[in-house]
Amino acid sequence: MRGKRSAVDVRRELKGLRLRKLVCCEKGTFTLEASLVLPVILLSTILLLFLGLYVFQTSSAYQTAGLAADRAAFVWDNSRKDPVTGAFNISETDGLYWRLHNDSMSDLFRWLIPHAGAKVALPTTGISNDRGPEGKLQHAGALVSSEWDGSMMYQNNGIFKKVAVQLEKPFHSPVYARERVKQQVASDADAQVVDPVEWIRLIDFTRTVVQEIQGRIKPKDALLAMVEPQSIPEPRAVITSHDSAANYLRTLVNGKEETIQVDASTKRTVDAMDANRVAHQAFYTFNENQLRTIQMPKDEQLLRNGTQVKGVVWHFFKLSKKDQVKLTQGLRSELERKGIVVVLHE
């Protein structure tokens, strides 16, 4: 005969049934999983967003620094060049010897004498009129956005010249990520300064001129060439009219007066045509409007034809009572654009 179960056993059995029912029941599982997984996904997404922002800011710093360095190196041979386009006025240069006296030549001796080098802080305060390395750096650095802090530096190592740029700015990250993400985005870049015109000039000088003069003159003859002349040089020619200017020009270029046919209805009288078919024209008294409307079109047509003359040179002589030739910069620039060479005799 089965014995009666106690009340305690019944309660235990009911409790176990309820527990098994709760464990086996699938109601509410989605809510439970969502409450655990969603915060993890949300935090991961936010971290990825800030990581993407950090990578973008770092890439922007590198691109800005590289662009600033390239622009400064590209226009280094002329402080008046536009850093973006490279355009400049042909009359604005830094002179022939800027590489010797205005290009941080003291950098070559920094191993002997402490030298900080050319350096400017970014953002710059404005464009400087200085034609030295600091002015060139400031000219290119003015294009860098003011949101960036940093510096631009130039080093002259002789053959290898370098412009270096360092940029940085704050990066604001969440509080919980500040220990893992840097609070500053920074980058640096540098660009080599190349001078192809000077390089070609030096190579051409070495290849041609040195070979031409090598062995042509002996030391004794060189000393004789330095002896003071015994004769008195001829007095300087005095130009008082167009005829005297034309005569002086023919003597100067060993040319002769010649009349050439520009087209079927137009003739051109050249004051001095030299042996290389370069037309030299003398101007003593002139009117700029007449030069633009009458003389310039003829010579432009001759240059365009390219058969009767190989070049055109206009010589302007100052009036005997004046200190210099009164020629506007506008006319001079227009002549140079047309291919006409301008020479001032003052």
Automatic annotation (TrEMBL):
Keywords: Membrane, Transmembrane, Transmembrane helix
TM spans (from-to): 36-56
This protein's name: Pilus assembly protein
Organism taxonomic ancestry: Bacteria, Bacillati, Bacillota, Bacilli, Bacillales
